[in-house]
Design brief:
The structure is a single chain. With about 600 residues, the protein is an alpha+beta fold. The chain has 15 helices and 19 strands. The chain starts with a strand and ends with a helix.
């Protein structure tokens, strides 16, 4: 029995899925309270598809008419073990409060620098040498291997703080800017959904402060990365060559000739401006984060907010929009192979327009008229749509178009009445096209997932669809895609072939064996506290990505008993493994978790 293990709002569509080796059509199912009383009964519904040879029958059990708050289980009569995990029906605030609190806890676990909060995982300050780091030429890689020695070109500069990107200890503007803008968007629009004293604004400050260090407006320089993941395997080692707690790097005694020198004294890489500016994907999402910072903090700290607005304008002015390829993301580029940038420019301009519209102090800014940015954002929206009329991707790190369209539609509604390259109706239609496409896919999928299985990154794509469906409803008042959004969220939280939530601490079954050094070395390996609560992982992945996996010496074995309890549920070319070696499945990431801030609050 597969179900969203967290639960449902009273008005939401509700279902469980029965996976079976034999037919069950028409059999009776019941919903019981945890005290055992039957509160609803029904019949096993339609056959939604075949999953694998062991489970050729997957049936839908619809119990949407149950709206009474409480704790429940679903059972199919005569099916032996086909009983769902417990789930809750309650209002949204009560349902998602713990998950939002956990998501922010994850970012506190990911902190670097002096301002680390110990928390349940006993974090300590780390990488204090980042406060006086040196700048190096962009390194050359081939097949993931460093080709030449690093060449110092400047510094020192202060790049301390920030969040670790994932299960390693690298820091990237690519992911940090995306994460920060999502966090600030949640703070602007959905702060009432977060539990009291959750730390949402404090964590937003923390993220924005690090982005501010990575942009030097006076010199027009963007620093996009701190640390190297991979060296050459011998003379130069990188972050990925060691499995340790981050504070251990500060304790290293190394000389310049030591292979681990760049693990302690981490290099900083800057975006080259020799080709006419800054990679527009980074410029756009940095501008979006700073624009949202200005919107969120203006009532609380006008000086800070104005500084954010200035940085956002400076960096968007510096974007390289003529001959922008190849884009800068990370080094090597294969870590995050983004190819889309017009959506980022649209989003950045839309947030600056909105910031100018509501911030009264515009003196000394390069551009003081919101209309300037509205026109720019609309041009990039039109440019994106001409290239990708049905959207390039659902909302995730690599494509922010649906969020950009929604934010531009908001800015048009709030801003001056001017003729633009797109209008609000067209923007909403662009969002609808992506949802229509996803809805068609979901209708053909056994588990109602509106994603092509060839795309990968299923969890962030599913979360992106849930957020997009909510954005559409907010813009239009229409619930046309609410079922798609709910089923996408259900899939992430346990209504999938493996019966696992892919958010740590959410539901009864969730990842225990994270490919995260902090979680592996400081947490438990059985799902009981302390854990890296709130961490969101990628879930299933293509089966061929699991070959040759391993972790450096020093990792704790997990699962401790060995084996792979999820293997019987693999299918459609996908595999999920809760094993510390299985980074394609269980490495937590900042950008995955960022989407939960919106999916659980919007």
């Amino acid at each position: 029995m597969r179900i969203n293990q967290v639960g449902f709002e009273p008005q939401a569509p509700k279902r469980a899925l029965l996976m079976s080796g034999r037919p069950y059509a028409g059999k009776r199912f019941v919903v019981r309270s945890l005290r055992g009383e039957v509160v609803m009964s029904g019949r096993v519904g339609r056959l939604v598809g075949r999953w694998n040879s062991r489970f050729p029958y997957v049936y839908e059990l619809d119990f949407s008419r149950l709206r009474e708050p409480g704790l429940y289980r679903v059972r199919v009569e005569g099916s032996g073990r086909a009983v769902s995990p417990p789930f809750r029906i309650t209002q949204k605030v009560g349902l998602y409060d713990p998950l939002l609190r956990n998501a922010l806890s994850f970012y506190r676990d990911q902190r670097d620098g002096r301002d680390v909060l110990p928390g349940p995982l006993h974090r300590e300050p780390s990488h204090l040498t980042d406060a006086s780091a040196y700048i190096y030429q962009r390194p050359s890689y081939k097949n993931g291997r460093l080709q030449k020695p690093l060449v110092r070109i400047g510094g020192p500069i202060d790049v301390s703080g920030g969040w670790f990107d994932a299960g390693d200890y690298l820091k990237f503007v690519e992911t940090a800017s995306y994460t920060d803008l999502m966090m600030l968007l949640a703070a602007r629009d959905y702060s009432r959904s977060f539990p009291p004293r959750s730390g949402l604004l404090r964590e937003s400050y923390f993220g924005t402060d690090w982005l501010s260090k990575m942009w030097n407006g006076n010199m027009g320089r963007l620093f996009y990365q701190v640390g190297i993941g991979d060296g050459n395997g011998s003379a130069i080692l990188g972050d990925h060559d060691f499995w340790r707690l981050p504070q251990m790097d500060d304790a290293r005694h190394v000389s310049k000739r030591d292979p681990a020198y760049f693990v302690k004294y981490r290099p900083v890489f800057k975006e080259s401006t020799s080709s006419g500016g800054i990679s527009p994907n980074l410029a756009g999402r940095m501008a979006a984060a700073f624009g949202l910072c200005a919107q969120v903090f203006w009532p609380r700290d006008p000086t800070y907010a104005r500084g954010c607005l200035l940085k956002g304008e400076q960096i968007l002015d510096a974007a390289r929009t003529h001959h922008p390829l190849p884009l800068t993301t990370t080094t090597p580029h294969s870590y995050y192979p983004e190819v889309s940038w017009r959506d980022d420019m649209e989003l950045g301009a839309a947030e600056l327009a909105e910031a100018l519209e509501h911030n009264p102090d515009r003196s000394g800014l390069p551009h003081q008229d919101a209309e300037y940015y509205l026109e720019m954002s609309a041009r990039w929206a039109r440019g994106y749509t001409r290239l990708h009329p049905h959207g390039l991707d659902s909302l995730n790190l690599y494509d922010t178009s649906t969020l950009a369209h929604a934010e531009l539609a908001r800015a048009i509604e709030d801003g001056p009445d001017v003729k633009l390259a797109v209008n609000r109706r067209e923007l909403i239609k662009m969002i609808a096209r992506q949802l229509v496409q996803a809805k068609a896919r979901a209708g053909k999928d056994t588990f109602g997932l509106g994603i092509d299985y060839s795309e990968g990154d299923y969890v962030p794509h599913a979360l992106g669809l849930a957020v997009t469906a909510e954005l559409y409803q907010k813009l239009t008042g229409s619930g046309s895609f609410s079922k798609l959004g709910q089923h996408s969220l259900d899939w992430v939280l346990g209504d999938n072939a493996w019966g696992s939530s892919f958010v740590v601490g959410a539901g009864k079954t969730f990842p225990h064996c994270l490919h995260s050094q902090i979680a592996n070395l400081s947490g438990t390996l059985n799902g009981r506290p302390p854990i890296m609560a709130g961490a969101t992982v990628d879930g299933p992945a293509q089966s061929d990505t699991f070959s040759g996996l391993g972790v450096p010496q020093g990792a704790r074995r997990c699962p401790q008993s060995g084996g792979d309890s999820f293997r019987p549920f693999d299918g459609h070319g996908l595999r999920y493994a809760d094993n510390v070696r299985a980074w394609p499945s269980v490495e937590p990431s900042d950008d995955y978790t960022a989407l939960t801030l919106l999916a659980f609050s919007s």
